[in-house]
Design brief:
The structure is a single chain. With 477 residues, the protein is of the alpha/beta class. It has a single domain, classed as Alkaline Phosphatase, subunit A. It is built from 14 helices and 18 strands. The strands form five sheets. Strands 1, 5, 6, 7, 8, 9, 12, 13 and 16 form a nine-stranded mixed sheet that branches. It has a three-stranded antiparallel sheet with strand order 2-10-11, with no helix packed on it. A hairpin with a 3-residue loop joins strand 10 and strand 11. Helix 9 packs antiparallel against helix 10. The termini are far apart.
């Protein structure tokens, strides 16, 4: 008898078996619970065997939020100078619709280009540090990348997850799902947030339909990197007692209901968080780094954002040393609108390059001298490029039809340059690639066959590359 305001919950299938059939169902249930309990305590981030011998063990993804202008950075197009100020329709022919439909005149590169290093790859004066021989000759350029989307949010999801739709697993999550991590005290996928979460929000780093343990953990590389990471208990013993109580309560909930991936993820996350209380302060403690190393990364630079991104790059190296599988860096704020210069291109791109040039060059140099570059894949990419004609007078609109990305490190042929856009840098015309191909190549270098890394969801074997993806053979060593 009750007050009439309480509705009894219907029995679950497991409860029905447990209570019925003169205990026969309970016998079967005990075996089921044993398997569930075993699954609950299994670490989903434990190292897993790749499909074949990998070239890379870790990935550092340098995300250039907003879409850098390839024709001002790495894709030299002298005809832009020749036809500067002319109507692009007269010299380039039919134009595709642009994001804001404010087509201006042909706009020449705003910086001079030179061939650099022994490879002779073209680099603009925007990157004096990356242009140095010891750095530029480690990079392999793909100058014919394309995207299917010209709007930031869709393009960001596509770049990160292989789908324009919200809620799909990111490439970092897929990497953890396929390979696990080599450090049980830190997440397998870490996002170093410089100050700008991209359009599309945290779902760019999410786990989607994969277990939550694989989602990106966002660290802020200043002050306290993770909220509430500091231990509140005075003794480790009390902390462990609380953790054991939580594990017991969650385990009890699992035994009384259907297996719940969210509860399993919660158990794992509690335990990871406990271990991180020691691992994260150790990660952030730079006292063991030399003054020369800090100078290399730009931590003593006059420009604040160079220091911010330099710290991110240094922490990325330290995360690689600790076995974290996938690290993504986002751009600092305060440079205008990311790399998204629809106006004042020279000012905005100038500040962005001042932010990332020295730290990225320092990262490549440091990884190389530490012997880590041969097992670490570094990827530099935005979600699309920018038009060879102006938006208004001094900006450029979004251009998904042909742009530049580069890769360096494990399994990459340093100094390579493949693909080509047309004479104006507008559309890919030779060795055209798309984001699915970039993902397939990244997984390949990690020893993962992209067509075999699948997860059953909604009756279909899902994968990062969907039903697409070919290797970018020309950059593979």
């Amino acid at each position: 008898m009750h007050c009439g305001k309480f509705n009894s919950q219907p029995l679950s299938r497991r409860e029905m078996l447990s209570r019925g059939a003169m205990g026969f169902g309970g016998v079967a249930l005990q075996a089921m619970m044993a398997n569930s309990a075993s699954a609950a305590i299994t670490n989903p981030l434990a190292p897993k065997s790749p499909h074949f011998a990998p070239k890379a063990k870790n990935v550092i993804f340098l995300y250039m939020d907003g879409g850098p202008s390839h024709v001002d950075t790495f894709d030299y197009k002298p005809l832009l100078k020749k036809y500067n100020g002319q109507d692009p329709r007269e010299v380039m022919g039919k134009l595709e619709p642009t994001q804001f439909d404010k087509v201006g005149k042909v706009l020449q590169a705003q910086w001079d280009f030179k061939q650099r290093g022994e490879s002779g790859n073209w680099v603009s004066d925007l990157f004096p540090h990356i242009a140095k021989t010891e750095v530029i000759d480690e990079l392999a350029f793909v100058k014919s990348m394309t995207s299917k989307f010209s709007e930031h949010t869709f393009a960001n999801y596509f770049l990160h997850t292989g789908s324009p739709f919200q809620g799909r697993p990111s490439m970092g999550a897929w990497t953890g799902y396929g390979l696990g991590s080599e450090n049980e005290n830190l997440p397998g996928f870490v996002v170093l947030n410089g100050g700008l979460i991209p359009p599309g929000g945290l779902d760019c780093f999410g786990s989607g339909f994969l277990p939550a343990s694989y989602q990106g953990s966002v660290f802020i590389p200043q002050a306290q990197p993770i909220a509430n990471i500091q231990r509140r208990e005075k003794s480790e013993e009390n902390q462990l007692r609380k953790l054991n109580l939580l594990r017991e309560l969650d385990g009890g909930a699992m035994r009384e209901s259907e297996p719940d991936p969210q509860i399993e993820a919660a158990i794992q996350n509690y335990e990871t968080a406990f271990r991180m209380q020691t691992a994260v302060p150790d990660l952030m403690d730079l006292r063991g780094e030399t003054d020369a190393t800090k100078e290399l990364y730009g931590l003593n630079a006059d420009y604040k954002n160079t220091k911010t991104f330099g710290l991110q790059c240094l922490l990325a190296r330290r995360l690689v040393e600790r076995g974290v599988r996938f690290i993504e860096l986002t751009c600092p704020g305060g440079n205008g609108d990311r790399w998204d210069q629809h106006g004042k291109l020279k000012d905005g791109h100038g500040k962005n390059c001042q932010t990332v040039d020295q730290p990225i060059a320092g990262l490549i140099t440091d990884l190389k001298r530490q012997g880590l570059l041969e097992s670490t894949l570094v990827v530099w990419a935005g979600e699309f490029g920018r038009t060879p004609f102006a938006q208004g007078g001094d900006g450029r609109d979004h251009n998904p039809f042909g742009f530049t990305v580069w890769m360096a490190g494990a399994g990459v042929k340093g100094g390579a340059c493949i693909g080509e856009t047309d004479d104006f840098g507008y559309k890919a015309v030779r060795d055209r690639y798309e984001i699915h191909d970039l993902h397939a190549t990244m997984l390949h270098l990690l020893g993962v066959e992209h067509t075999k890394s699948t997860f059953r969801f909604s009756g279909r074997d899902m994968r990062l590359t969907d039903v697409h993806g070919h290797l970018i053979e020309g950059i593979l060593a």
